[in-house]
Amino acid sequence: MPAKKTRLLAVANEKGGVGKTAMVVNLGAAMSAMGKKVLVVDMDPQHNATAGLGVQIREGMTNVYDLISEPGIHDPAAAIIQTPWENLHLLPSHPDLSGAEIELVDEEGRENRLKESVAGVVGNYDFVFIDTPPSLSLLTINVFAMAEEVLVPCQTHPYAYRALEALFDTIEAVKEDINPGLKVAGIVPTFFERRTRVGRDILERLHSDERYSRYVFETPIRVNTAIAASSDAGKPVVFFRRSCNGSRDYMAVAEVLAKGNSGKRKK
Ligand SMILES: Nc1ncnc2c1ncn2[C@@H]1O[C@H](COP(=O)(O)OP(=O)(O)OP(=O)(O)O)[C@@H](O)[C@H]1O
Ligand SMILES: [Mg+2]
């Protein structure tokens, strides 16, 4: 039997509040509901993905900060938490992660700390989704060094659309300096509202802009209050309210991503 291939996906956008964490939690959960083995790695000190999977940070819990700040000391397998949902595991974050940038500033090979610390465990999964903070920090660089693909949530709003240019420049720079094999897995439009002109307009521009069009997923994630409510309840939306638009949209994106393409429009 051929060896199982793990897909390592960074979910990234330097712009804040575009739906990165919602995508990591809900797409991860949708994939697990499809029977895939999923690991969520929370690399944001805000630890919203950790909370969104119902995990409260406790004293003595090994987290990603421990792994990257003390390489070789902690067992990554012991740091992984099994969430209440089958096939959905988590490497939790910690607020101390915000200090890693300064602490590691003089350390040799600091960009590869995450990659090296989790190398022994990622092969157990079909999909690894890594959440990133809304900035281009050493944490995000560690994620880009580890990942093979970048999945980009893009709010269907003019500022988010304009911010894509900086993100694509960053990805190019990372390819040149750190990870030549890094690919864009896709751009997923988020917070979509068909009834608003601006939402329809930005979706159309994403699909017609030659820099981005080949990456844009056919299924946008619509605005859906159940998504916000589910994160508050510490449950992925597909387990919180199976039949809402948020669940349908994330399941649709999961199916397309599992097939390895972005479901492009047929020309
Ligand atoms: N499709 C949606 N419909 C309604 N609310 C949503 C949707 N997606 C995300 N949200 C909510 O919007 C807020 C911002 O989303 P999220 O935290 O995923 O963004 P983010 O890009 O991770 O933010 P940050 O840059 O701060 O990490 C959250 O409260 C989340 O629950
Ligand atoms: Mg977030």
Keywords:
267 residues, alpha/beta, Rossmann fold, 7-stranded mixed β-sheet, 12 helices, 7 strands, 40% helix, binds adenosine-5'-triphosphate, binds magnesium ion
Description of the molecule:
The chain is globular. Strands 3-4-2-5-1-6-7 form a seven-stranded mixed β-sheet, with helices on both faces. It is an alpha/beta fold and 267 residues long. It has twelve helices and seven strands. The chain has a single domain, classed as Rossmann fold (3-Layer(aba) Sandwich), CATH 3.40.50. Helix 8 links the parallel strand 6 and strand 7. It binds adenosine-5'-triphosphate and magnesium ion (MG). Magnesium ion binds next to helix 1.
Give the spatial strand order of the biggest sheet: 3-4-2-5-1-6-7
Strand content: 5-15%
What Rg, in angstroms, do the CA atoms define? Answer: 17 Å
The kinds of small molecule bound in this structure are: adenosine-5'-triphosphate, magnesium ion
The level-1 CATH class: Alpha Beta
Number of E-state strands: 7
CATH H-tier superfamily: P-loop containing nucleotide triphosphate hydrolases
What would a concise description of this structure say?
This protein is an alpha/beta fold. Helix content is 40%, strand content 13%.
List the helices and strands and how they pair.
Layout lengths: L6 E5 L8 H14 L4 E5 L5 H5 L11 H6 L6 H4 L1 E2 L5 E4 L8 H4 L9 H6 L8 E5 L6 H9 L2 E7 L2 H20 L5 E8 L6 H12 L16 H9 L3 H4 L4 H14 L9
Parallel strand pairs: 1-5, 1-6, 2-4, 2-5, 6-7
Antiparallel strand pairs: 3-4
Helix pairs in contact: 1-12
